[in-house]
Write a structure and sequence with these properties.
227 residues
DNA sequence: TATGAATGAGTATTCATTCAT
DNA sequence: AATGAATGAATACTCATTCAT
């Protein structure tokens, strides 16, 4: 009202990076991923997401529609992130056994390093999976991994190190099971079993899981195996 | 509305009334268990719990204090229920291998039949375990199982069917892992892998888990094992 | 927190009339009638209604559901009020011509004295009548009047003072038309025609309307009427 | 985005652009008229107006200032439109009785064909007439009609077909009353009286109104009129 | 023991309006 | 002349919790 906003002539005329739609979108999505995974669907606050993303609430609504749609976008993003990691695993250029070891290690590591993945899955399953059912392309997101895993199993069978008849989806679920629970339930395990859920302990979980899966995949020893 | 049915003051202090009070308490607790496990902590509604339990909201407050305290009671109840099941397993009168098989089968079955157990654990872990940390006797609730499992392992080692050096807590976590994930994440698995998460599929999960655990426990074959 | 709310021993122990559900309901309904008629549907504020009624907002929601339902209740109330006035008109004990004069006078008077009636009708018609269509018993509310008016017309025809063939609904609409517009549109008329819309002017409107309606109802003069 | 189509600077100052500006103004005004009349003042959305007009929201603000100013412009436009229609009625070249008939017919027809006129008047009266009071030239907009109507009445009195002493403004209000209510309140009438508010019904309203007004204007029959 | 009545403090969502280009 | 990006200030509605009986 009084003084015009004198721009000091020699400086940059404005914070350059404002008004960048794509950048705002990403900021909101990442803030939502964190908030939803920390607080769950009902507990998440749009206010908190706006604050984290450094934008106003109306912008969130104009980009994503409503809380549910934002939650769906965040859930999808969680899957996209793990797929990107798995794509880089390069299973086909490893020996079958190393491929399995690598997949186990990556899976556990991803769960630990990107804790919102597990949290989002837990939240979504608590909600009965209604949202993920509505995401069109979720099937495609995961299928490359299953294909790779199937090929790895076949190579192992051909090489005589794996027994035949193992379903790649079942195998993936086994691996995920062994990696998921110790991370997902770390808080309750720590209290109930009074044990330290820390790096070394998780490293042992990883080694045990690798051994478990490989023992399960191994064909029976030729001349009279177990018992 | 007018006069309460005045019990003559000097007699026994209305035992029927006490029964009702205890029944109300149980009704509230069970309603809370269902509501919290279906909706999570933030999503659960005191109104809904009152409705399910068939009591008024003030009664809930007078019995349990507030929402958090009710949640804590429900969480504790979930642990109590699974402990009661495990206590009846009678591991010590089975062969070591059968004991392991029985524990795996029971664990999966309990997760499937009492879905609020998994839901409560998920909810509590999403919340960072703050509540369970405050429950005094949770350690004792779980410890009998660990003792039994340790004894079973020792018997197996003595009998030469298990290798030594396995920690009973780690073993229990492995078993729980294999049983937990397919049930906990049934909704997302169904959609992402387009597979039927049904009775037969779960039965195969059970068999696979039993085999996995036993193969893991078996000592290396005497004359040259796995590479 | 500090001092307990000492009830001064000799006084009445509390504001007696609080916690009276029916009384709260009426207060809300009347406040809503005023607020909706002053501000329209979109312009009305639940906050303002709560303030006017002297209750909290949640109470409004617990009694009426949501804004639309409250609006519907207020609209219905407006009709109930005018019906009660018409019921007391006692048309059947007046001469047919006096009955018409009385109905005209009452109608204009009601529009002036209960301004929310016109405002609610205007609001509802602006909204396309969607709400009134959903009120079940609106037809019955108005029908007694139509019956009475039909009887009055018949008596007039029999007495030779009214011509036959007049539909009572059409007649009522004529009367309403003449009374409605000068009240409903007082604000714009005042400005556009720079005329005083006040008591005397409305009294002339009443007299003119009575004359118009009666002239319209009169049978043609027996020996060659108008032109 | 890159270069605007630079018009060579010295030539005529881009007349095409000016046409576009005027067209945008009209588009906004007409969109506003529709939106305000469909939704009322509080219910109208600037977003919706921008969408209907095919322009951006900031353009609306740069042309009209704010929502209230746009509403005022739309209200004024409604009056301008009906004045244009009335100007073409050419009352002075018709017999006094035909002139009245024509005015009644035109009024009803305009209300039916330009529904935003009635809606805008209702909206403005619901708001207490605050806006129209601020429109400077509203008086002039309506006065030609009153002058014409006064002349018509005088001609009728001179011809002996109308009685003297009728105020032209009062007469116009009577006519407007009879035409306004059945159109304005069509939605509620349809439901409350369960009658069809359609073309034929409105045509009968028109004929009845014409007859009513003429009967009212007629001088008392020379040899003993109505009582 | 038990409850109908009532509310303070939020929470998702909307909307007129402005900024920067 | 025109617009995509962005927001402050509401506004409808919810929910854990308490009051009064």
């Amino acid at each position: 009202m009084t003084d015009a906003p004198r721009p000091s002539p020699a400086r940059k005329p404005a914070p350059v990076r404002l008004r960048d739609a794509e950048r705002s979108r990403r900021a909101i999505l990442e803030a939502a991923l964190v908030e939803f995974s920390e607080a769950g669907h009902a507990g998440a606050r749009i206010d908190a997401i706006a604050l984290r993303a450094g934008v106003s609430k109306p912008l969130i609504y104009s980009y994503f529609g409503d809380k549910d749609a934002l939650y769906a976008a965040a859930l999808r993003e969680a899957y996209v992130q793990i797929r990107e990691g798995e794509r880089d695993l390069d299973l086909e250029h490893k020996t079958p056994e190393d491929a399995i070891r690598a997949l186990v290690a990556f899976t556990l590591q991803h769960y630990v390093e990107k804790p919102w993945f597990i949290s989002m899955l837990n939240t979504e399953n608590l909600r009965g999976g209604t949202t993920i059912r509505a995401i069109e392309d979720v099937g495609e997101i995961q299928s490359p991994l299953v294909t790779q895993l199937g090929a790895t199993l076949e190579r192992g069978v051909a090489a005589g190190v794996f027994r035949p008849g193992i379903d790649p989806v079942d195998l993936y679920i086994m691996i995920a099971s062994l990696c998921y629970f110790p991370v997902s339930n770390a808080h309750t395990l720590r209290v109930v079993f009074r044990c330290a859920i820390d790096g070394p302990w998780l490293a042992r979980r990883c080694a045990d899981a690798q051994e478990m899966v490989l023992r399960f995949l191994h064909p029976p020893a030729p001349g009279g195996g177990h018992a």
